[in-house]
Amino acid sequence: xxxxxxxxxxxxxxxxxxxxxxxxxxxxxxxxxxxxxxxxxxxxxxxxxxxxxxxxxxxxxxxxxxxxxxxxxxxxxxxxxxxxxxxxxxxxxxxxxxxxxxxxxxxxxxxxxxxxxxxxxxxxxxxxxxxxxxxxxxxxxxxxxxxxxxxxxxxxxxxxxxxxxxxxxxxxxxxxxxxxxxxxxxxxxxxxxxxxxxxxxxxxxxxxxxxxxxxxxxxxxxxxxxxxxxxxxxxxxxxxxxxxxxxxxxxxxxxxxxxxxxxxxxxxxxxxxxxxxxxxxxxxxxxxxxxxxxxxxxxxxxxxxxxxxxxxxxxxxxxxxxxxxxxxxxxxxxxxxxxxxxxxxxxxxxxxxxxxxxxxxxxxxxxxxxxxxxxxxxxxxxxxxxxxxxx
Length: 391
Fold this sequence. Notes:
This protein is of the alpha+beta class. Helices cover about 35% and strands about 30% of the residues. Strands 6-5-14-15-16-13-17-20 form an 8-stranded mixed β-sheet. Strand 1 (about 5-10), helix 1 (about 10-25) and strand 2 form a beta-alpha-beta unit. Helix 1 packs parallel to helix 6 (about 100-115). The two termini are about 35 Å apart.
């Protein structure tokens, strides 16, 4: 089997890259280790930046998102039992975000790919990436009980943190920057309409809490919990009681309860691998970087990566110049590090570290007071939340 771009991974990064390449007249093959049902059901991010929304629309993948997604023009910061709304359009010149689950993005892109794009192989596990430092890289993969080889001009590693792509880089080629946090998020899905029409980020002395949603009838809520916590250690009643404590306000706001349908714990880490390219292998999304979910940046960073890569490949096809391909890593990393910075800022602003001192607690409150009292500080948050430029 041969193609121009071999794409490993059918998450949003790999699927969107295939779509963008198809529209640019560039052949690709997508290899996905899991089956279609798994890809379309795995729960991940749900907040799309303005730039991500614009890219999906331009790629022809925005129709259902525009019908069913929930446009949000702000978020609420909550601390000391007080509430403050951050008005995105008013602070950013009209930008907003869209609540639309990653599962739905993947469903839309899969349907488009199968209807008219290049080959998309489910159950095709990439086992090795070879010869990426030559003009003819190869991907060895298993599919339908046998081993096969995909020969290509370029390889896009969109296979996540645990995939085969990044370990392909020789030892000593890259540098890793990372931080782990001593807490995680206990997340639930509940069959109950959201208790607020926008996301609520709550800083509380007992720990952080987030009110989010998947649809007008399904709530997504999170609690900060100690590192290593198991979801089954918390009963539904304990979760709802703790959420009520952390979201409490002085104006009598109440949290709606409902049946919990899913419960899981997400660890918190920051991770960047530099560079994001080696030879003809290009890393994108979680294969190259991880952010704590506080800033809602993971999926959006992956979109930014593949937009840059698709433009670079189209430029090479049209002009014969590899200039943009050579700049891929540096171009992406500028945006990646701004997202890492914002995600770190949001995490340290709202979460209480296990060993936090009274001094550090006061600094958190001072930072929050600065945001709600300074238009410049509030604008900085709004601009970062709604998204950094894609290139």
